[in-house]
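Hey team,

Filing this mostly as a record. A colleague (T.K.) asked me to run one chain through the structure pipeline before their review meeting, and I want the input and output archived in the tracker in case anyone asks later how it was produced. No errors, nothing strange. Just documentation.

Input sequence:
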Amino acid sequence: MAISPTPHLAARVAFYAVIVCWWIFGLTFWLRKRPPRAREAKRDWTSLIGLSLQAAGYLCVWSFPLRQKQFSRVAAGSPAVEWGLAVLTVAMAVASVWLVNAAARRLGKQWALAARLVEGHTLIQGGPYRFVRNPIYTGMFGMLLSTGLVARQWFPLLVAIVLFIPGTYIRIRSEERLLRQAFGPEFEAYARNVPALIPGIY
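Output structure:
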């Protein structure tokens, strides 16, 4: 059987493409145009517990990212599987970055790390919010999965998912508790028609 002279090319391409996506992900928040500061009306600090769990999940998938192991094959002698996984991983990362960027721009002055309401807060239902109620968290989860896939460290990825999912759930519940208080029936109708995080699952 002929052996490819670049047996790890697919893994390398996917790895560096995901790194580029992480840079874009970070720049979405670091360099975004700051809207006029809005006066805060209400805040729920419980969401920071969820944020800490999400951060721990990211730390898990980044615990082995620069080891040479991430360039090993999934299955020896199956370049089609390697390239298929690489394409899937990069597509997931690109889609996740787009989702986060589009959602952050749509939120504008309402975006914050901790759950809060600002004066004049509106219930955003357009853009990516037509598909999921929390598109930034959907994109963050996609980046977690794509990073774990290119690192090829399956146990850390599993631990990361176990940490990230409850962290995301805490943040969603915290934020949506405020939205229910502020918008009542309007939010309830929105929640009935649009999934919270992943269509068909939750």
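Quick notes for T.K.: The beta strands are 40-44, 115-118. The helical segments are 9-30, 47-61, 79-107, 135-151, 154-183, 185-193.
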